[in-house]
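Objective 1b. Sequence-to-structure analysis of DUF3305 domain-containing protein.
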Amino acid sequence: MTETADAANVPHTWRIGVVVERRESANPWSDGTWRTTEVMVGAPDDDAWKVLEQGEGWSRYYAGPLTVELFKRETEDYKMNLSQPNPAVYIVLRPGNDDDKGDVVPFLATFSPYEAECYLESGEMIVDGVPAPLPLMAWAVAYVETFHVDEPFKKRKQKRADDSATGRKHGTRER
């Protein structure tokens, strides 16, 4: 399953393979569009950018491996995702540079929709939520069940205004 495990014998990392699709674009300023179509449980190291399928105007590639890593402090995020009708693994693709084999490079895999959302802000990254394979989803559920701790709501008390700044004394009103 994975290389690393904690005391409860629930691993916190899982290696996956990322499948991406490139579609030709009718836009004269764009060569094409990329999106993640699926993730595979387990991932070979040596077949990055292997063509899996092709059709008219599109190609599907195995883009390479990524490691999904879960963190105890983010279990609330995972719990929300896993409670949805179709839990997703979010894949972040960054633009490739001259040293990379592809136009895009798998950068991050996460179960946290909030972490994935942060990568949308720059406009440079491509973020896709793809259906989580059953073994991967079962692993994330086991992790959440093992490590999630509900934190009780704590109402913050309002701080009093600095009297030295206003020149007023507590309990007095201006008339």
